[in-house]
Model the fold of this input.
Amino acid sequence: MPSITKPRIPLAVQQVNEIGLTIHDYEGAMSTLCAGCGHDSITAAIVHTFWELSTPPHQIAKLSGIGCSSKTPTYFVRGAHGFNSAHGRMATIATGANAANRELTYIGISGDGDSLSIGLGHLAHAIRRNVNMVYLIENNGVYGLTKGQVSPSADIGTRPKRGEPNAVAPIDPMLLGLTMGATFLARGFSGDKEQLIPLLKAGVAHNGLALIDVISPCVTFNDHEGSTKSYRYIREHEVKEIQTDYVPVRDEIKVSIGASASREVVMHDGSVVRFRSVPKNYDPSDRGKVEEYIRDRQSRGEVATGLLYMNESPPDLHDLHHTPTLGLNKLPFSKLCPGSLELDELQKDFR
Amino acid sequence: MPLAIDTEVTNRVNDFAMKLANVNGTGSASANSLLMQAIFRMGIPVSGKNLFPSNIQGLPTWYEIRVNHLGHTARALDYDLMVAMNAQTYEEDIADVRFGGYVLYDSSWPLESSLERDDVTFLGVPFARMCIEHFAQPRERILMKNIVYAGTIVALLGIDVDLVASLVDETFARNEKLRASNQTALRLGYDFALENFSCPLPFHVTAMDATSESILIDGNTATALGCLYAGVTVAAWYPITPATAVMDHFSALCARYRREPVENPAEHEANFRNNYLILQAEDEIAAIGMVLGASWSGARAFTSTSGPGISLMNELLGLAYYTEIPAVIVDVQRTGPSTGMPTRTQQGDILLCAYASHGDTKHILLLPANPAECFEFAVQSFDIAERFQTPVFLLSDLDIGMNDWVVPKLTWDDAYQPDRGRVLNDEDLRTATEFFRYTNEDDEFVTPRTLPGSDEKGAYFVRGSGHNKFGVYTERPAEYQEVVDRLKKKHGASAAHVPAPIIERHEGAVIGVVTLGSCDLAVREAIEQLAELGVVADFMRVRGFPFVGAVREFVESHEHCFVVEQNRDAQLRSLIAIETGVGIESMHAVLAYGGFPLSAKQVVEAVLSELEK
Done:
């Protein structure tokens, strides 16, 4: 079978997770992205996340739209079922899949063009519906596959490789999420796996849509002087005041809560998200404060990262629709079809 | 000639047509359907066509009732009685009445002399004045006027008044005040007619026994019922006329049949569970995307829409076709292009649906002619979609979907088991040595699929990008072609599974008439009329696409075929020509595309004028 598969080099000692799998069991095909692409670092973080969470690969559904970012689901968890859909439409497919089978762990990978331009409407409505999934935007401010046009997340004044500086206002997925009623908003940087992995874990544990915006520099088209999404720019302007740990269920009792922890949130599965440090007066459950903070940092040309907002209380798509805990796709036909006697009965209304 | 028609008018029992001209939003619809329902309950074949505007209040609206003891209930075009309740349209309405017919109008105000006709009888009833005298509230006066005229018509046509009164009781069983005022209004109109006119009119009804095994149902309700019975658990949609009621009814049916009580619910938990999930999407693109996601996951899922929605769905329909994901799309067609006339009927989406999306695509169409077929075909759509792992369109239209039709009672076979197609479960995967998505085709060119959540061995990556039979990305010509060539053969193989064409051959036939969908009744009536005029015709109604061989054979076996359809561009004729290779020159197009349902008269005139050439 012709495909680019990653060579599996057996190492002497391979650590296994709770379900006996090595990290290689969570890898996928060889990346065909440019060397140094931020997306590949995110892929590596996803691999680590699921391995560390011991999620059975076949219980993961990975979806994407179209673009460089949307190619990446083939590069992680080969044992997961995947759906590379159409440009901007990933959220719709994920919503339908989740509606039919709520039992899987859904992760959608998208880009700033895919989610903030052609698919903006679908993203907004997936947020409103609180579809239980990780929705990850690999945000590089540029259209890579079509060679470098500015995307809707590009900042005013940022200079593309060719052409004039961007003159129109950017869309910040975090601010969009706050407006749309998002229940989990986080921003990371592809160059910082240590920060990203706990964000992803918390996103997986979150009951609802976890929107994770990851600044992921495009080494080919947007890593130059004058770009506000270059490695250098982000390293110089990232503000990591909000720091969180993810404490899995099994460790919960063992880990003592540090005095500096300002807040802990218990997730639906019993795991805990701990805010290790936050700025003074910051409240990650207060939309107004979070918005104020993000805007304040933005006005100084800075990029605030971390778990910016979360609220575990709102119902997800299924809670809203009062569906059974079992996936709808498992319901036997005998439960779904009212049968001939009932058809006779109900047709009395049609006389 | 006029005299002959006059005689006909005089002696017709259970054979006439009436048109009711109203103002939209004044409550006339319930009075009009009450009349139709009463005639149906008297055992007489009847149809009601609502010719309504795209408007909530104020524009002219018409309702046509055709009564015919032989079951010819297509649109008539010759009106024996005009109920002229809209002064805005007096002129055209009065002109519409046939020679020797009757006009019922509101004589609270005098009729302009320019509107008078010598060849029709005017029946004036002071409806507005009667309502002002008997009802206090302004809104009530407007609403009750409809029931007053209904009462008058009940007397004029000899409709069983006790039956109508009991229907009013049924309708307002839960609202005594409304029940009482409706009964008062009914009697007001009825008594006035008995006192002032010679009732019944020469054309009227007499009870018969032709509908006791029938129901009165619209296509959208029947479609929703079919989806319920087919076992749909996920539906996604965006509101659009004339398809909205499909999902309205589906929601109501699910709430009734798919809700399970939960004993001892936890705190903040509902005391019921819904064994379904309906998503009102942000647009039709999202609606079809949700259907694909749900179908990928193994649920039976559908969307309902109309032409503009199909236009939006095109991209994802191609994705579904190429990645081989089942989907059922109900298209209740309306008049296009663009916004077109949203409340008017047409069969203008045939080619759009047959070839929806860019690149080489071909889809499966099911073409119901009435609500009974909507029910039956809706169930079949899911079986075919899952068997062939591809989108299936149920092409209804506004006439079928939104009008009430008399059809035989729907039946259900409790032995029915859904055909879920070729799906490998974990057990299958354990015993299989390997799984590649587009290999191991059966004799209908279908390859087995797996569902998300199944064993790792069955995991694969659905991709709309070029792929080979292993499901792996490819840009190699031979590998790409191998897959799309199989898709073409798979589509062809589905012909044996779509509903077969109805073919009726007649001794001595000189022409063939081909049609589809809601043209059915008008074409059948036309064939009878043509036979009376000495033109014997064979009949074929296609009910599915791709076409079986019989379709080509029928067309080829007639030197002259007439293809009757409701669009400007003869889309069915084109589809037959493209797909069967039969020359277009032997197929004459008979087209009605103004937005109103077809009448036999249009077919007869078109055929005769072509034959006279």
